[in-house]
Amino acid sequence: MMSRWLGSRIGRWGMLAVILSSFAHAEEELPQTEEFTKGQAAYEQGKYDEAISSFETAVKKNPKDYVSWKHLGMALLDKGEPEKAIQALDKTLALSPDFPYALRTRGLAYISMGESDKGFADLSKAIKLSPELAQFHADLAQVYLDKNMLDRAANEITIAVKLDPKEAWNYCTRGQIHLQRKLVEKAIADFQEAQRLNPEIVDVHHHLGMSYLKKGNHKAAKESLEKYLKASKGTAGQDEWKAEAKKALDGLPQSAR
Questions:
Q1: In this predicted structure, what is the pLDDT of residue 15?
Q2: Which of 229, 56, 19 is nearest to 133 (CA)?
Q3: What whole-number distance in Å separates Cα of residue 47 and Cα of residue 75?
Q4: Nearest-CA neighbor of 95 among 126, 74, 68?
Q5: How far is CA 176 from the centre of its chain?
Q6: Contacting residues for 123 by C-beta, under 8 A, at least 6 apart
Q7: What pLDDT sits at residue 20?
Q8: Is the pTM of this model over 0.90?
């Protein structure tokens, strides 16, 4: 079963917000083939079938092209085919066992399938190999949060925020941790900062709405939750949050409606 945070990101950007930074990794290593270039361009445009076709052609021509295998895995995961993604990423890691971005992506694929232990192992190894990369710590924080391991989640997101204080998703994650700990004021502050840094994140409206609701600010809760429902129309991976938002709105006092 795909975790809610991962489904949310895949549904909105095909995980571009989560793993697009992979393209910047070791640019001198990127294949200079026509197939890879076409696949990369298609991936960035969210054309996953086209990207998959191009990357498959690339690895057929050169089965030892571990970077194309990794990008094939990314595209398959974004398309919602984690099992096939893992197969491609296994190829990558057989050729380059310490490729941190491949480990990270395979970890996310395992997590999307509900295989948390394998996902933890891959993400943890990726962090050991590249501890300076904030997104790796943020990924692990989200996994810990999903498992309600709040202390570990807080430790990882603290590192992520320190490494990348301008990344809105880091504040979104930290806000969720605060909210789970019933630190509502801190949660609201983080969600507001996430919104300031990136107004396009749909999830923040939901989280702010639920935070305002816990604080008893029904007017602000209503405004945020209605914004969330409007912004999330047609967005995959949001069904649980949509139901939660609708239930919260229905439960508001009549004076707040």
A1: 39
A2: 19
A3: 9
A4: 68
A5: 14
A6: 103, 104, 107, 108, 136, 139, 140, 143
A7: 40
A8: no
> How far is the CA of 220 from the CAs of 143, 155, 180, 217, in angstroms?
29, 30, 20, 6
CATH number (3.60.20.10, 2.40.240.50, 1.25.40.10, 3.60.15.10) of 1-130 reads: 1.25.40.10
Cβ atoms of 82 and 109 closer than 8 Å: yes
In angstroms, what CA-CA distances link 210 with 16, 42, 94, 168?
A: 26, 37, 45, 18
By C-alpha distance, which of 174, 201, 202, 199 is closest to 189? 174
Show me where the domains of the chain are located: 1-130
- Check residue 147 and give its pLDDT: 87
Distance, in Å, from the CA atom of 124 to the CA atom of 211, rounded to the nearest integer, reads 31
At a CB cut-off of 8 Å and minimum separation 6, what does 60 contact? none
On whether the CB atoms of residues 221 and 210 are closer than 8 A, the answer is: yes
* 76 and 47 Cβ atoms separated by less than 8 Å: no
CA distances from 206 to 28, 241, 252 (A): 41, 7, 15
Burial of 230 (0-12, 13-18, 19+ CB in 10 A): exposed
Instruction: Give burial (CB, 10 Å; 0-12/13-18/19+) of 53.
Output: middle
Residues of the chain under the 50 pLDDT cut: 1-5, 7-28
Taking the C-alpha atoms of residue 134 and residue 127, their distance in angstroms, rounded to an integer, is: 9
Residue 22: both structure tokens together: 């992979």
CA-nearest of 59, 86, 68, 80 to 22 is 68
Q: Rounded to whole angstroms, how far apart are CA atoms 55 and 79?
A: 14
